[in-house]
Write a structure and sequence with these properties.
The chain is of the alpha/beta class. The chain is built from 19 helices and 15 strands. The strands form two sheets. Strands 1, 2, 3, 4, 5, 6, 7, 8, 9, 12, 13, 14 and 15 form a 13-stranded mixed β-sheet that branches. Strands 10-11 form a two-stranded parallel ribbon. Strand 8, helix 8 (241-249) and strand 9 form a beta-alpha-beta unit.
């Protein structure tokens, strides 16, 4: 089984290269109506013996092999449908009998994800489910737990449209329990509106997707011991929007005590970045919500009631999703809201004031993060220079001298470079610098391995290709390095151990980070 899981075919790599294509998927085409989804089967594991675990809501069956037990489709919150649409996640209703955890659940609503076999949509509002991979033989092992949040600009389950892309077995086999979770996306997960704030006891709205993640973490606290995990040793990790989510959990009052360590992979940090803003203010979010409702033809005191009765496909189609990744960054789209409750202030302000939870922390980026999330931005030289002037102010002349452009092709190159450096690299270094003031066990990395058969370098999300599998032709040493560092950190709060290169803790005076590749090296000058 392990050989099969590690010997991924080129299909895994092909999916990773769909990041750009998926970011280009618009919502203007008619979407099929929601149907009871036929989730993607677990094709990589064959049932050998029954595996049933008792959770606080009922018994769950899974797939047992000699080395691993796998459970899919476990409900961690009630289906957010009908009157529960745009409300905090509600408790799961207990069930009798045994819940079938053999197959993945449907994905949360997004530009339609299609089942490759049936051609039918596999999206549903009934999507608040999680998956567990555990190598524990019994509940007494108390293994460390790693909870993963996917990326996708809070609008899709990147890169494939489904959590089945993230096979936790390759990480769990290192002696940790792995959990992945769906969370609400787009308008379903991040719509803010004055009427929603009025009905909230906290006078807030939006951030339902973040609240879903918190509900999943609370489920872990209540239930993971039954799967052989230790609820007192939980590491959250995520990539892109999932990475930003980990940063939000590090500053959210509602996440306090739900985890003990964090890993942030390419998570944008700035409220006002060069090309990526990771949150909007409450007033901005509510105005976006009012405009969204007006676009559906709804206004007045019964707006919310009408929107809760609107069918899923209509809302998906109406959700802003640009045909260009670059334009998407400049297009109002649903994302976390600085609501004063889930997110008390911007992430960068909170880190600047050292208000993050002081926990062992890994953060980093890929060497070419900006390339696939930029697409082909069509800016003139004058527009490029104006953007730099607007974003960098007094530093603009220095930036333009470092990143000059005289042609449209050069503009494209410079935009990718600036996005990589400032939206991702500078974000990671700034967050690490703040945490290093609070904790000595802070670690900064850059992932620089180029997967074979593609020309995008160490593109955005490429580290997850090697973390969750090993494509044909890829270097096994890279897979062993990244899974080894991540899981050793989950076990001890320190990524070092074994024969891997030493990863020095980040300090503001030494500025050391680890370049992760076939041969990983400690470097300075991030």
């Amino acid at each position: 089984m392990q050989r099969f899981l590690l010997k991924k075919t080129g299909f895994f790599l092909s999916l990773s290269l769909l990041v750009l294509a998926l970011l280009c998927v618009g919502c203007t085409q008619p979407q099929p109506a929601a149907v009871p989804a036929t989730p993607t089967p677990v094709a990589t594991l064959e049932p050998v013996s029954p595996a049933t675990v008792q959770t606080d809501a009922g018994a769950v069956s899974g797939i047992a092999t000699g080395a691993m037990r796998v459970y899919h489709n476990i409900p961690y919150a009630a289906p957010p449908v009908g009157d529960l649409r745009w409300r905090p996640p509600a408790a799961v209703q207990p069930w009798t009998g045994v819940w079938d955890g053999i197959r993945f659940s449907a994905s949360c609503p997004q530009p339609a994800t299609v089942d490759k076999k049936t051609g039918k949509p596999v999206i549903s509002e009934d999507c608040l489910y999680l998956n567990v991979w555990t190598p524990a033989k019994n509940a007494d092992e108390k293994l460390p737990v790693m909870v993963f949040f996917h990326g996708g600009a809070y609008g899709i389950t990147a890169p494939s449209g489904s959590l089945d892309y993230y096979n936790g077995s390759t990480i769990a086999r290192e002696g940790v329990v792995v959990v992945t979770a769906n969370y609400r996306l787009g308008a379903f997960g991040f719509l803010a509106h004055p009427e929603l704030a009025a009905e909230s006891e906290h006078n807030t709205s939006g951030n339902y997707g973040i609240m879903d993640q918190q509900a999943a973490l609370r489920w872990v606290q209540r239930n993971i011991a039954a799967f052989g995990g230790d609820p007192s040793r939980v590491t959250i990790f995520g990539q892109s929007a999932g990475g930003t989510s980990t940063l939000i959990h590090l500053v959210s009052p509602e996440s306090k005590g739900l985890f003990q360590q964090a890993i942030t992979e390419s998570g944008p940090f700035w409220q006002h970045g060069f090309a990526i803003d990771n949150a909007v203010t409450k007033s901005e979010g509510e105005q976006q919500g009012v405009n969204f409702a007006a676009g559906l033809g709804y206004s007045g005191p019964d707006t919310l009631a009408k929107m809760r009765k609107t069918d899923m496909a209509t809302l998906v189609n109406a959700t802003p999703w640009s045909p260009s990744p670059w334009v998407l960054m400049d297009t109002p789209h649903f994302q976390p809201v600085i609501d004063g409750y889930i997110l008390p202030d911007s992430v960068d302000n909170l880190f600047h004031n050292h208000r993050e939870y002081p926990v062992p922390f890994i953060i980093g980026t890929t060497a070419d993060d900006g390339i696939t999330v930029s697409g082909r931005p069509e800016l003139t030289v004058q527009q490029y220079e104006a953007r730099v002037q607007d974003k960098f102010g007094n530093d603009a002349d220095r930036i333009l001298a470092q990143y000059p452009a005289t042609t449209v092709d050069e503009v494209r190159t410079r935009l990718v470079q600036l996005k990589t450096r400032y939206d991702f690299g500078n974000s990671a270094k700034t967050a690490a610098a703040s945490m290093a003031d609070l904790r000595p066990d802070t670690y900064l990395y850059r992932y620089s391995y180029n997967l074979p058969g593609q020309s995008n370098g160490a593109f955005h999300g490429s580290e997850n290709v090697m973390l969750f599998g090993l494509p044909d032709g890829a270097d096994p040493a890279v897979h062993e390095n990244i899974t080894g560092y991540w899981t050793q950190f989950a076990k001890t709060g320190n990524p070092n151990g074994g024969t891997r290169a030493n990863w020095p803790a980040y300090r503001n005076d030494t500025d050391q980070y680890l370049d992760i590749n076939s041969i990983s090296l400690s470097k300075t000058g991030y």
